[in-house]
Amino acid sequence: MFSLAQLLNILKKQFPGADLDMVKLAYDYAARAHAGQVRLSGEPYVSHNLATALNLAAMHVDLPTIQAGLLHDVPEETAYTTEDIKENFGEEVANLVDGITKLSKLKYRGMERYVENLRKMFLALSKDVRVILIKFADRLHNLETLDVLSPEKQKRIALESMEIFAPLAHRLGMWEIKGQLEDLSFKYIQPEDYAWVSTLMATTSPSKEKNLKIIMRALHTALTKQPDLKIYSIQGRAKHLYSLYKKLLRHDRDISRIYDLIAVRIIAESVVECYTLLGIIHQLWKPLRGRIKDYIAQPKPNGYQSLHTTVIVGPGEIVEFQIRTQKMDEEAQYGVAAHWLYVEKEKPKEGAKLDARLQKFSWVNELIKLQQEIKDTTKYLETVKIDVFPDNIFVFTPKGDVIALPDQATPIDFAYHIHTDLGDKCTATRINNRLMPLSTPLKSGDMVEIIIDKKRVRPSHDWLDFVKTRTAREHIKQSLNRASRLLTIFKRG
Ligand code: MN
Questions:
Q1: Quick one: which of 51, 46, 99 has its CA closest to 77?
Q2: pLDDT exceeds 90 at position 428
Q3: Ion ligand 1: residues, CB < 5 A
């Protein structure tokens, strides 16, 4: 069981001197809203909210995101609405919660569900990357408590996590989250392979760990001779199970050929100290040829920075070292989240525009890559054209489908995009449940409902003055032509 005190302790360290009252209030609010509800595991519902917030804290997010994490299921699962949250916690938190609520309403099954899911994730990303972070945090806890669900649901959620969430975490540079998502899903998707790899790990790692202790001792001794060197931490880290599994398949299932089963990660103060450490390690142990990698001078295309070296520590004993600064480490583990945190620290909030943040991280390019990778499996992504993403808006149908439209598109464009008939017979529109003029420019995230008149035979000529899409324009002209032809025939008759 998780406690609020646990969360507050972590936040106190991350935000020294910050006022945490709103976090406490968000917890109280969630506890009240979910009062009486229990998870299938038998735990009170609010334990899930806390777990989500704790996962978020581990990603080093800001305080509004923590609040939204605590409140994320309130509109979906309780009598309280997003409006209520807005009144109590302000627009920023309410928007984040709203983003999560929209994300969770999925209609389809199978491949269509996959596409729908991706669309929604992209939409959320285009608005505020923090929504995705909350979704990851939420999903991690759901995966941890998956045992109580039916096998069918277990499989569905695990597959979704493996095929959508994990690749997205990967593209966002969130290695730690990706690893956790994969390991937790792996167990349900391939139970036999999971059992095999975890047994293999369990039988191999004790001797590895024993060796690790000896290595650490030697390293510490060498470092005491360098008192000026500032080192934050030295840790042995076991490889994530799923990534070990994939590596084993590439190496004839032979675990003796996996060198980074346990890697030693050293976090140093500065880049210069990273190189000094590399030198010290190479003086202690002989490096393997071709295994010294300088990702600091030459970062990986995704921006990953670190020094890697694999050394021979004894007969047949090989260990990988990863050396990096604290900032590099946070970015490697939490990717866009960590990066965002640094930008937030450097700049006041209003100065740090979302676009600039993301461009700096170059994840827009990453998304394009993602799109290319999955082009074959979905027609949708070809049409969304993520490369023109900034010029697109994404709106919802009342059923929760996402429709991509050009900037400034109107409800008429929306109607024609869905179906010619819906356009031709359109008489009015509700945007976010409010009646609005048909010429209203839509904004990303709007929920658009088209009201039709079944007896209506043709569109209005005036619509040509404001429609934005070629589809709408062509259909309107076509329908008008057809109507006037009919009229001519009728007159002649
Ligand atoms: Mn949830």
A1: 46
A2: yes
A3: 73, 138
Which CATH number belongs to the domain containing residue 226 in this structure? 3.30.460.10
Q: Model-level pTM? A: 0.67
Q: What is the pLDDT of residues 456-468, one digit of tens each?
A: 888 999 999 999 8
Give the CA dihedral 470, 476, 477, 479, nearest 10 degrees. 140
361 Cβ contact partners less than 8 Å away, ≥ 6 residues apart = 173, 303, 335, 336, 339, 340
**Residue given tokens 């972070």 in the structure block:** 133
112 Cα to the center of ligand 1, angstroms: 23
More confident residue, 399 or 175: 175
Q: What is the per-residue burial (b if ≥16 Cβ within 10 Å, else e) of 325-349?
A: beebbbbbbbbbbbbbbebeeeeee
Q: What distance in angstroms lies between residue 359's CA and the mean position of ligand 1's atoms? A: 29
Radius of gyration of the CA atoms of the chain, in A = 27
Distance 20 CA to ligand 1 centre (A): 22
Residues 183-211: pLDDT tens digits? 999 999 889 999 999 999 888 878 788 88
Say yes or no: 237 and 185 in one domain.
no
Q: Can you tell me the distance from the alpha carbon of 277 to that of 330, in angstroms, rounded to the nearest whole number?
A: 19
Q: Residue 71 Cα, ligand 1 centroid: separation in angstroms? A: 9
Give a yes or no: residue 304 inside a domain: yes
- Alpha-carbon dihedral 104, 41, 164, 401, rounded to 10 degrees: -20
- Ligand 1 centroid vs 137 CA: distance in angstroms? 9
From residue 312, give the alpha-carbon distance in Å to each of 187, 236, 285, 317, 371: 33, 16, 6, 6, 41
Four-CA torsion 120, 125, 127, 131, nearest 10 degrees = 90
Over residues 417-432, the mean pLDDT reads: 90
Q: Is residue 452 part of a domain?
A: yes
Residue range(s) defining the domain that contains residue 100: 4-189
Tokens of 233: 């931490």
